[in-house]
Write a structure and sequence with these properties.
Blueprint lengths: L7 H9 L7 H8 L2 E6 L7 E2 L5 E2 L1 H14 L5 E6 L4 H7 L4 E2 L7 H6 L2 E3 L4 E3 L1 E6 L13 E6 L4 H11 L4 E6 L2 H9 L5 E5 H10 L6 E3 L7 E3 L2 E3 L3 H19 L7 H4 L5 H7 L15 H9 L2 H9 L28
Helix pairs in contact: 1-4, 3-9, 3-12
Length: 337
């Protein structure tokens, strides 16, 4: 989901842009845990299980950062945040980082006082419709009533799409994702729209998922990724290179199962990544085995993706653009050297 970068959040940003204090790592260590803002509950990305344990793709990113710092992926306080509240929570310091399926845009990167650390999930806005409508393409939605969540760029993308196709639609918005999907399921709307990745999770919540179809088109670019505040380059580096470490580990064949064995590798790239050569961890305020800690905790990028979205999960999302660059995808990380 993608909240608009204006209104109250922008007002708060005007108070903190250029003034975010350094020392986030020290604060996290002093607290004894990482404060990570995430979704209130979205299959695949972040939701508590029946025992209250948070699980998901974004959750694993939070745990990876905690593992890098504390060698303990459980030293995280998860803060469930709505689309409209997430950026204010980060600006105020209530969260040390966001990992909440948030889209990287120019306005957020330059006017809200934030840094996006990278693209953890390449996504796009899609549609779900009632199967009984026999609609096979989003371009057949002329005159449709469409449900979405308030205050997100989803609304702007819709307007662009329908204007470009010279079509009309009726928009119905709701304050939260749960209200929105319930309204769609009840028949209040012909279609439901949000990020395609989120649609797969929301579809599983419906009483009869097979009665609903996800359209093939994506009508926007939605590069999702973790977010930190401006003003603390060390913290930015830690969260950014946690993402890069996950991707590089997959590319080098380092997995949760073999990471200890791989420390004996003679491959210089592996040696640098796992800290047996050089002092790359120390350069960002961590131990040199920080990547070993990360991979032991959550696996490499491919494992994180497959564990939360892959064929063995109810979502069964294909990696597509989220494959490694050398396998036809877009995931690519700078080298450790």
């Amino acid at each position: 989901m993608r909240a608009l970068p204006f209104g109250g959040a922008a007002l708060a940003a005007s108070l903190v842009i250029g003034g975010a204090s350094a020392g986030t790592l020290d604060n996290v260590k002093q607290n004894g845990f990482l404060k990570c803002g995430t979704h209130t509950g979205l299959a695949g990305f972040a939701q508590p299980d029946d025992k209250g344990v948070w699980k998901g793709f974004d959750v694993d990113y939070c745990r990876a950062v905690a593992a890098a710092i504390f060698n303990d992926p459980n030293k995280v306080k998860f803060i469930p945040l709505s689309a409209k509240d997430r950026f204010t929570a980060l600006q105020s310091g209530d969260a040390d980082m966001l990992a909440r399926n948030s889209t990287w845009t120019m306005a957020r990167d330059t006017s809200l006082g934030f840094n996006f650390v990278g693209v953890s999930y390449y996504d796009g806005q899609g549609f779900m419709v009632h199967r009984k409508l026999a609609v096979k393409s989003a371009k057949e939605l002329n005159g449709a009533t469409i449900c979405t969540e308030q205050g997100t760029t989803t609304e702007l993308n819709l307007a662009d799409f329908f204007r470009a196709n010279n079509q009309k639609y009726e928009l119905v918005t709701f304050a939260g994702s749960e209200e929105t999907i319930k309204a769609y399921e009840s028949g209040r709307c012909d279609a439901y729209t949000t990020d395609a990745s989120a649609i797969y999770g929301q579809r599983l919540r419906l009483a009869k998922p097979d009665e609903h179809v996800v359209m093939p088109e994506l009508i926007s670019k939605e590069p999702l990724g973790p977010v930190v505040r401006h003003g603390d380059d060390q913290w930015f580096d830690i969260v950014k290179w946690t993402h890069f470490a996950l991707v590089n580990a997959e590319e080098l064949g380092i997995t949760q199962a073999n990471v200890d064995r791989m420390k004996e590798s003679d491959n210089p790239e592996v040696k640098r990544l796992l800290g047996t050569e050089g002092k790359f961890g120390e350069s960002i305020g961590l131990t040199n085995d920080w990547v070993v800690r990360i991979v032991k905790a959550v696996g490499n990028y491919g494992e994180v993706f497959e564990n939360n979205f892959g064929e063995k999960t109810p979502l069964k999302v294909k990696r597509g653009a989220n494959e490694l660059w050398n396998k036809g995808g877009l995931q690519y990380a700078p080298p450790v050297r």
